[in-house]
């Protein structure tokens, strides 16, 4: 990573030089084990997570997260070396072969000696064979990220660190030394510590905004500061944020929103009359005729009625009840609300939720936070990521040995896989859910994003109703939609809804109660949702422009989907299924065995290793498939198709070229 800045030392609360913790190392599976060498007979500092006392002069410490490594090196060292002689930190490989990780010695500190405290870092379970302090290598700066030497082939076996759970961002900080100092001063320890906090929160992971994205942000900052890189910009193709990728907002929704936010503009001749009428109608339905007032917790009643009419039109006249519709802060908020209603039990009675693999990490994150069980069913990559009921039965049968499955989630069109389910498949899923008494969650936020010839979006609500009794009257369903995707791409305004079907009336009241705790969804998001579900009519002056802009966005997305599939499938070692819908490709990449081995030595998932190298050498930010789930032994990445066409083609070609170079390097 030529040109990248090193992290400098920072003073600790005790006056000892500490390392600045980083928040961007990519993570993989496995704990971090520290072996702390101390002079013979000396006592290492106490620590609540100390796992065992090793051989003479060795103290073994297991950390729950690699993000704790720099602060722990600083705090532990700082409390058993004097401020005049900051400790030498010397992480060493596990085994006698291979390169030693550079260490940092505090400014003004003496060269390591037998009295110096040295830390050896290696994967848990490895036999630590690090050198004692007297054999430590010359002082070097601690690397802020894996440098070129870390990320290129090398001989040897188990080395460096095993980085903990995949894509968990390092917002945690362990301050064991600080706690010890506080105790020595007679002060109370903090009430909220890593050990005392909610353990479910610690288990939450969200790959889409994980460490590799944090590194991309750092690279952007370094470019602004004039640091030389092999690229001139970072292209964040990691997330479905259309407007961040350059998509121009649709005019009519923004006009209505502007009028609602600043009603004085209703007198301006610069706004069309239909936009003014819609804004006035919305304001009349708001408390105090102002968008700044709270709405009712389920959302503005008039907007819920407009959503119901939209669903009825979409589903060919099948009625929708506004009282079954709850507006939300994006679809994610509504999904978590329904999951909260479903999750119960302990031990073998804990709620299990079937989710697709690959999946959108919201589901795994929410289930971890709620202490529910993630039940994985695999989509069939060989059949364009189709959903197979036989696979659902396998997953359900295995899950019943250790939990109580109560819900089944289907993402259609798929994220990250881009498939569009057929009507027959949806019918099969409904049959299965009904027979197995599973609540259905239909994530349908990409229902406007269908591109492939022969593909068509079918809502679960429509198919369920048309199946007739007993399914239509008894199968429980929650269907989700959002303004963040589709053609509007208004991610930041956080608008969405959930429609519940056949939900018990008493449970629906509990859902209303749960929504009321959050007061109400953001009213600007509700306004934009209303425009999405009730756009200009053919007789309105804004109709022609609105339709033209909408068609242009969707047509360009369709062209990008085809281009992405074509370029990737022309590249050796990359295979991409058709992007039938949504906003992403999820290509499979072949990684040489030596690259896989090197990734394992670095404690990285192999596709994270690939994506990190890609980012550092090309500026392209994509998310490794391990963050979404994938079959063992396969490697993928998710890339959005949202960049402008003039950037997308070079991006695809550069990515394909990098894969060829990477393959040659490790072959």
Automatic annotation (TrEMBL):
Keyword check for ATP-binding: no
Extent of Low complexity compositional bias: 105-133
Cofactor: pyridoxal 5'-phosphate
Listed InterPro entries: ALAT1/2-like (IPR045088), Aminotransferase_I/II_large (IPR004839), PyrdxlP-dep_Trfase (IPR015424), PyrdxlP-dep_Trfase_major (IPR015421), PyrdxlP-dep_Trfase_small (IPR015422)
Region span, Disordered: 83-156
Protein name as annotated: alanine transaminase
Highest taxon of source: Eukaryota
Family annotation (Pfam families): Aminotran_1_2 (PF00155)
One of the GO biological process terms: L-alanine catabolic process
Record's subunit section: Homodimer.
A Gene Ontology cellular-component term: cytoplasm
EC nos: 2.6.1.2
Transmembrane segments: none
PANTHER family for the chain: ALANINE AMINOTRANSFERASE, ALANINE AMINOTRANSFERASE 1
């Amino acid at each position: 990573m030529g040109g990248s800045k090193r992290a400098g030392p920072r003073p600790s609360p005790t006056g000892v030089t500490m390392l600045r913790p980083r928040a961007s190392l990519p993570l993989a599976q496995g704990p971090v084990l520290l072996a702390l060498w101390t002079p013979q007979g000396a006592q290492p500092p106490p620590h609540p997570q100390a796992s065992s006392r090793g051989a003479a002069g060795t103290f073994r410490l297991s950390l729950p997260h690699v993000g704790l490594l720099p602060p722990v090196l600083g705090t532990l060292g700082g409390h058993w070396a004097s401020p005049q002689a900051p400790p030498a930190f010397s992480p060493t490989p596990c085994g006698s072969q291979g390169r030693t990780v550079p260490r940092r010695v505090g400014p003004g500190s003496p060269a390591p000696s037998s009295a110096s405290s040295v830390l050896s870092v290696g994967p848990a379970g490895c036999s630590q064979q690090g050198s004692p302090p007297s054999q430590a290598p010359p002082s070097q700066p601690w690397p802020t990220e894996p440098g070129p030497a870390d990320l290129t082939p090398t001989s040897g076996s188990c080395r460096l660190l095993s980085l903990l759970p995949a894509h968990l961002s390092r917002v945690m900080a362990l301050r064991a030394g600080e706690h010890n100092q506080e105790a020595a001063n007679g002060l109370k320890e903090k009430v909220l510590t890593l050990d005392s906090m909610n353990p479910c929160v610690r288990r939450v992971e969200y790959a889409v905004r994980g460490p590799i994205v944090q590194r991309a942000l750092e690279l952007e900052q370094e470019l602004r500061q004039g640091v030389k890189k092999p690229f001139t910009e970072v292209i964040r193709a990691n997330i479905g944020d259309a407007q961040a990728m350059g998509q121009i907002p649709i005019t009519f929704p923004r006009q209505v929103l502007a009028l609602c936010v600043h009603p004085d503009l209703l007198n301006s001749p610069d706004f069309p009359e239909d936009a003014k009428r819609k804004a006035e109608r919305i304001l009349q339905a708001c408390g105090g005729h102002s968008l700044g007032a709270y709405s009712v917790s389920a959302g503005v009643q008039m907007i819920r009625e407009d959503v119901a009419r939209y669903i009825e039109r979409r589903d060919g006249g099948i009625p929708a009840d506004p009282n079954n519709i709850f507006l939300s802060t994006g679809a994610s908020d509504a999904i978590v609300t329904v999951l909260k209603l479903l999750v119960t039990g302990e031990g073998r009675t804990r709620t299990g939720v079937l989710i697709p693999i690959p999946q959108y990490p919201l589901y795994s994150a929410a289930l971890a936070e709620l202490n529910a069980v993630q039940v994985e069913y695999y989509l069939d990559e060989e059949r364009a990521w189709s959903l197979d009921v036989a696979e659902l039965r396998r997953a359900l049968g295995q899950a019943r040995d250790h939990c109580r499955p109560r819900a089944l989630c289907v993402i259609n069109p798929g994220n990250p896989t881009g498939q569009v389910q057929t009507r027959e498949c949806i019918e099969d899923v409904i049959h299965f859910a009904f027979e197995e008494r599973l609540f259905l969650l239909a994530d349908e936020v990409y229902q406007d994003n269908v591109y492939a010839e022969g593909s068509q979006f079918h809502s679960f609500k429509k198919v369920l109703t048309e199946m007739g009794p007993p399914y239509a009257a008894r199968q429980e369903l929650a269907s989700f939609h959002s303004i963040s995707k589709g053609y509007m791409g208004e991610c930041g305004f956080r608008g969405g809804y959930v429609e519940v079907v056949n939900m018990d009336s008493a449970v629906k009241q509990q859902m209303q109660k749960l929504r009321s705790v959050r007061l109400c969804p953001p009213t600007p998001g509700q306004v934009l949702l209303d425009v999405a579900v009730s756009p200009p009519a053919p007789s309105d002056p804004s109709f022609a422009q609105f339709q033209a802009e909408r068609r242009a966005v969707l047509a360009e997305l369709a062209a990008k989907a085809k281009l992405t599939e074509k370029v990737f499938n022309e590249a050796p070692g990359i295979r991409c299924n058709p992007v039938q819908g949504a906003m992403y490709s999820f290509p499979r990449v072949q990684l040489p065995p030596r690259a896989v081995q090197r990734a394992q030595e670095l404690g990285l998932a192999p596709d994270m290793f690939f994506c990190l190298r890609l980012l550092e050498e090309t500026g392209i930010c994509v998310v490794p498939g391990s963050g979404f789930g994938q079959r063992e032994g396969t490697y993928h990445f998710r890339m959005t198709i949202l960049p402008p066409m003039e950037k997308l083609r070079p991006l695809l070609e550069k990515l394909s070229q990098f894969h060829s170079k990477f393959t040659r390097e490790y072959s």
